[in-house]
Amino acid sequence: MKTIVTMTLNPAIDKSSSVAHVVAEQKLYCTPPRFEPGGGGVNVSRAIKKLRSSCSRHWKLQAHRVTVVR
Predict the structure, then answer these.
(1) Cα(66)–Cα(28) distance, rounded to whole angstroms?
(2) Does the global pTM surpass 0.85?
(3) Continuous H helices in 1-70
(4) In this structure, are strands 55-59 and 4-8 parallel, antiparallel, or unpaired?
(5) Beta bridge partner(s), residue 55
(6) Per residue in 24-48, pLDDT tens?
(7) Who is most buried in 2, 5, 17, 52, counting CB within 10 A?
(8) Burial, 55: exposed, middle or buried (Cβ in 10 Å; 0-12, 13-18, 19+)?
(9) What distance in Å separates the CA atoms of residue 58 and residue 70, rounded to the nearest whole number?
(10) Residue 7 and residue 20: Cα distance in Å, rounded?
């Protein structure tokens, strides 16, 4: 199987939380937030991995050349 390579030139940090269930007109209590790398290529790579394919992620950080995460 061929490896898919994604490149994210403008990475982000995704912040997410969840609730057990939603009830109208009641206060919702969220889980602690999760912080994960995000951005187009990072999210696409995550989806490809879930589909059981081979993929490597690359993104540019500040003045550094390229960082590879596997």
Answers:
(1) 40
(2) no
(3) 40-50
(4) parallel
(5) 4
(6) 999 999 999 999 888 888 888 888 7
(7) 5
(8) middle
(9) 9
(10) 35
